[in-house]
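Narrative of accomplishments. A recurring question from our advisory board has been how the design workflow behaves on a single, concrete structure rather than in aggregate. To address it, we present the structure tokens for one chain from the evaluation set, followed by the sequence designed for it. No filtering or post-editing was applied between the two.
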């Protein structure tokens, strides 16, 4: 069976990374921007490895030049998510790509994205929340700028702070100031770790940045004592299996540790990360997990509940989404 119509909760989606290639090509043509050779002959994004992926990603982002581009992008992304049964989504937003970290410019970009999210909620029935995300390879100083944007604009829509980017650059503690600032303001926290780094990177991230969720976290599997601690502490992993397979963080679907982590009691959730870059959708992720590990509707029901409980939204929103999941049973 296909899980296309099965309702889904997604916690880990990079807004720019979800941009359909045709959307980026269209903007490049409209604005006459030379983005270099970032597409393959079939029109999809082309890159060699993770480092090159980040470069292609940033080249694509040069076409996104103002609030209106982000309004259109948000609508295009939510349309695709809604078509795949996603009823609640959290997206990573980076002020670095939206005015370079200037707070008043960021507010204009944010207003445009909120306008699109409101429209999508009304017309497609999908709810969106934003997590402001610093980019690790831009360094700790730029991370503080992102954290300041987060603190200044947190509220109904911006509910979290996180970090993505090149995981092997610097140590988690370098970013403690930004995470402390966000935590003290009341933002929920997540951080990419254990996608490329080993269990030590996951452990240091938990110790120094104290997020309630970890982006990926899959390499924790190489230290079972750490896995048990993650399970005991209720840390939630935002696992993106298709991304891990395509980028080569794991050898293949059968080798993916998501089932072993779950069987050992870890709260795992399912997301797409940057769907067009990995030729995936939430439907594809559910279908592949079902095919690979024999997961059924009951498993996906349970995974949705774990994700919703870990969502960075207020309890009224959680209750509303919970009712939608229930109604779809
Ligand atoms: N930014 C977008 N996708 C990412 C990933 N998979 N890891 C780290 N940073 C990212
Ligand atoms: Zn990610």
């Amino acid at each position: 069976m296909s899980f296309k119509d099965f309702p889904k909760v997604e916690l880990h989606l990079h807004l720019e990374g979800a941009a359909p290639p045709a959307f980026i090509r269209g903007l490049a043509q409209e604005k006459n921007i030379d983005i270099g050779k970032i597409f393959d002959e079939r029109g999809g994004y082309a890159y060699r490895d993770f480092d090159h992926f980040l470069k292609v990603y940033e080249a694509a982002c040069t076409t996104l030049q103002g609030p209106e581009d982000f309004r259109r992008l948000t609508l295009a992304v939510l349309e695709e998510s809604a078509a795949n049964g996603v009823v609640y989504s959290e997206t990573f937003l980076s002020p670095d790509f939206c005015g370079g970290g200037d707070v008043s410019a960021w507010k204009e970009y944010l207003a445009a994205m909120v306008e699109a999210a409101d429209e999508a909620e009304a017309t497609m029935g999908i709810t969106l929340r934003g997590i402001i995300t610093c980019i690790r390879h831009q360094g700790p100083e730029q991370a503080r700028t992102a954290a300041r944007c987060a603190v200044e604009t947190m509220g109904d829509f911006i509910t979290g702070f996180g970090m993505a980017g090149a995981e092997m650059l610097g140590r988690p503690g370098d970013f403690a100031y930004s995470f402390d600032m966000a935590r003290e303001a009341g933002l929920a926290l997540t951080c990419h770790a254990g996608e490329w780094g080993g269990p030590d990177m996951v452990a240091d991230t938990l110790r120094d940045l104290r997020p309630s969720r970890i982006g990926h976290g899959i390499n924790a599997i190489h230290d079972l004592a750490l896995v048990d601690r993650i399970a005991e502490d209720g840390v939630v992993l935002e696992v993106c299996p298709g991304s891990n397979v395509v980028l080569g963080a794991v050898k293949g679907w059968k080798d993916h540790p998501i089932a072993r982590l779950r069987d050992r009691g870890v709260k795992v959730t399912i997301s797409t990360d940057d769907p067009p870059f990995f030729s995936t959708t939430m439907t594809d992720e559910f279908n592949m997990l079902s095919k690979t590990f024999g997961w059924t509707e009951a498993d996906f029901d349970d995974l949705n509940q774990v994700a919703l409980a870990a969502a960075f939204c207020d309890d009224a929103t959680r209750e509303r989404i919970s009712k939608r999941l229930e109604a779809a049973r």
